[in-house]
Amino acid sequence: MDWAALRPSPLPLAGAALVLLGAYLFRASLWNHVLRSMGEEVRTRDGWRVFLGAQLGRYLPGKVWQIAGASLMAERYGVSGAAAGTATLVAVMIHHLVGGAFALFALEGLADDLAWTGGAVALAGVIGLAFLASPLFAGSLRWLASATGRASLAKVEPPAPRALLVVTPGYALVWLAFAGALLLVGHGLFPGLPWVGPHLALGAMAAAAVAGFAVLIAPSGLGVREAVLVTLLGPSVGIVPATMIALALRIWMTVVELSLSLWGAWPHLRARRAEKA
Description:
Layout: H1 10-37, H2 44-54, H3 65-74, H4 81-102, H5 114-133, H6 135-148, H7 151-154, H8 161-189, H9 198-214, H10 224-237, H11 239-276
């Protein structure tokens, strides 16, 4: 590698951090909207704390801990734990459904045919939303309540279809923000590096994150996300720069997300400590 090409620029890197901060807070607001559509009353700040604090569970193997964390912490704010867990499940599903659709932009040959790819993205979104808004999802909640013995889950109201239509474009904006953070990190490390088109950056970011989520044993997709990013970005920018960009993005996202998660979970952790004392 020609190390002269590495010229870190503080402004784009700071911009990436701010974009990520806004994206995570916006995700928390989308979760609030889903929860309220299920008949639960939650203050915006409290909802942010629950959602963001529960994200600490993403750093454990398995993909259910953020759902369990939301259920546990929500009850301290007078919100049904079953409803909070269900809202988190819905939010995770829509987030990764939209991400999986955007991942099509990273597939070879499809990135150049934006009309065809856009149609596939729309079709995937319609199918996923149709399931969440259908009686099948409500029936799945009742079956889960029976299987787990949690009667409270059977009483949970599914999210309103109108809310799903509102939050889905919101999650598209979240993925666009993540792609923007990727571009800013790349520009902040290698100002003179040939770069990829925005649609490929979006597809690569979405494909990497969804792949990381699909590997259940990888906490927060650690390693998997970076490998996919390097594979998809390497042909355009080179393997070594792509690796450094992937690692820097991981650090940036982890610092921002963990900071927000600790802020969200702090009241709960402090209360638990007081109870043990």
